[in-house]
Amino acid sequence: MELSILLVLVLISMLVFSAFFWLQSRISPKEMEVIPGSLGWPVVGESFSFLSAFSSAAGIFSFMKNRQQRYGKVFKTFVLGRFTVFMTGREASKILLTGKDGMVSLNLFYTGKQVLGPTSLLQTTGEAHKRLRRLIGEPLSVDGLKTYFHFINTVAMETLDQWSGRTVLVLEEASTFTLKVIGNMIMSLEPAGEEQEKFRSNFKIISSSFASLPFKIPGTAYHNGIKARDRMYDMLDSIIAGRRSGKSIQQDFLESLIMKHSKAEGGEDQENKLTDKQLKDNILTLLVAGHDTTTAALTWLTKFLEENPAVLEKLREEHINIQSKRTDGASLTWSEVNNMPYTNKVINETLRRATILPWFSRKAAQDFEIDGYKIKKGWSINLDVVSIHHDPEVFPDPEKFDPSRFDAPVKSFSFLGFGSGPRMCPGINLARLEICVFIHHLVIRYKWKPLEKDDSVQPTLVRMPRNKYPVIVEPL
Ligand code: HEM
Ligand SMILES: *[C@@H]1O[C@H](CO)[C@@H](O)[C@H](O)[C@H]1NC(C)=O
C-alpha cells in the first residue's frame, strides 16, 4: 500500500518535472543558447538565488559578481519571469543608453509598474516620453530651482541644528531632509505638521513596496504599497481641487502643471495637456526616483568623508573659504552654491564608488546586436554599472575614494552616476543642489564618528548602508 503511494508520488513528480522542462524548452529562446550562463530551474529560473543575493550583506550586486566570475562579463539568466542578459562596458552602455528611439524601453519590475501607474514617465517611450520630460524639466532646471534655494537652505540648517552633541542615523536625517524639500517643491507642503507626517508615512510604505513580490493579499508590502499610493493620490486630488477652485494659489510644481493643463484646455496648447491621472502618476514618479537616490548619496558621502580625512580636510577648506568671504551673519547664497568645484568632484566620486543604482535595466523593443551578441525583442538587458565604475583602465585603484579622478574630464560612458542619453536623470541639478547645501553646513560645523563598523547594504534596489550609518556628532 505504502509502496504504491510512493510510486504514484514519484510518477506525479516526474510528470510535473517533465512538463516544466517541456515548458522551459518551449519558451526559452534558441538564440540564447550561445550566451554563457544558466537559466536555472524550470519556471522559477534563478529567482531564488536572486532573492537571496538581494538580502545578503553585499546586496544584489553579489548575484551579478558571482556569475561574472563563472561565465564572464556577458551572461544570461532567468529571474522573476524574465529572460535577462547582463552586459557591461562602454560599448554596451553607449548602445543601450543612447540607442535609437524605440530600440529599448525602461524595464521596471511588475510591482513598480503597478504602483507607479501606466502614464508614469518611466513607462512611456518615444515622443510621449520626450513630451513628459519637457514638462517636468522646466522646474528642475538650474533656473527653475533658484526659487527653492532659500527653502532648501533653511531646511538643511534646521536639520543640522539638531545634530550638535547627538547620535544620529545619517540616513534617516537625509531622508527627512530630502522629503521636506521635494514635498515643498511639488505642492508647497509645510516642513512640519500633520500633512508632512501623513506624506512621509505614506511615502515610506510606497517606497518599501517596490522591492516586494506582487502578492495582492492584505498585509503584504505590495498590498500596503498600493493602499498608501491611493491615499497619496487622494491627498493630491484634494490639493488639485483646492487649486482649481482658486482657494489656494501657490508657486510650485503642481501649480505650473495645472496652469499648463488649463491653458491646454483652451485648445491651442494641446501639446502640454496632462490628465489628472498623468499628473499624479508623474508626481509620484519624481518622488520615487528622487528620494531614495538622493538620501543614499548624502549618506554615502558622509560615510566616505569620515573614512577619508584628507578629502574631508580639503572639502572643508573649500567651504570655510566660501564662508570667510561673507559678511557677518549672512547665509549661503545661490551664487556660492553654484561655485563649489571640489564639492562637485566629491559628489561624482561618491556616485562612482557607491554606484547607487548597480544596474540599469532595459527591455529590447526590437532585435539588435551588442558586442557580437544577438539580442532579441522582448529580452531584458541589464547594464552592469558597478563594473563600468570600477574599470581599472579608467579608474586606477578603483576601490580608493579619490575625487581628484575628476580633475580632468573622464571618458564618455565611463561615469554614469546620473545615467546618460535620453533617460539621463532629470533631477541631477536638484540632487546636486541639495547635496551641496547640506554638505556645506555639515562640514563647516561638525565632525562625526561612526558608532559601528558595518559595510553591508539594505535589501533595496537603491544601494544604501544597512545600519543607516549611525554617528556621534560634535561641533568643530
Ligand atoms: C543623487 C541623486 C540621484 C541619482 C544618483 C540619480 C540617478 C539616476 C539615474 C542613474 C537615472 C537613469 C536610470 C536609467 O538610465 O535606467 C535616473 C533617472 C531618473 N531620475 Fe534620478 N537620480 C538622483 C536624483 C533624482 C531626483 C532628485 C529626481 C527628481 C526629483 C530624479 C528623477 C529621476 C527620474 C524621473 C528618472 C527617469 C528618467 C527617464 O526615464 O526619462 N532623480 N536617475
Ligand atoms: C561630474 O559628472 C558629470 C556627469 O554626470 C559631469 O558632467 C561633470 O562634469 C562632472 N563634474 C566634475 C566636477 O567632474
From TrEMBL:
GO terms for biological process: brassinosteroid biosynthetic process; brassinosteroid homeostasis; sterol metabolic process. It holds the Pfam family p450. Its main location: membrane. CDD domains: CYP90-like. Its cofactor is heme. Gene3D superfamilies: Cytochrome P450 (1.10.630.10). Keywords: Heme, Iron, Membrane, Metal-binding, Monooxygenase, Oxidoreductase, Transmembrane, Transmembrane helix. GO terms for cellular component: membrane. Heme binds at residue 425. GO terms for molecular function: heme binding; iron ion binding; monooxygenase activity; oxidoreductase activity, acting on paired donors, with incorporation or reduction of molecular oxygen. It comes from the Eukaryota. The chain crosses the membrane at residues 5-23, 43-63. The keyword Zinc does not apply. It is found in: Membrane. It is a single-pass membrane protein. Belongs to the cytochrome P450 family. PANTHER family: ABSCISIC ACID 8'-HYDROXYLASE 3-LIKE, CYTOCHROME P450 26. This is Abscisic acid 8'-hydroxylase 3-like. It comes from Populus deltoides (Eastern poplar).
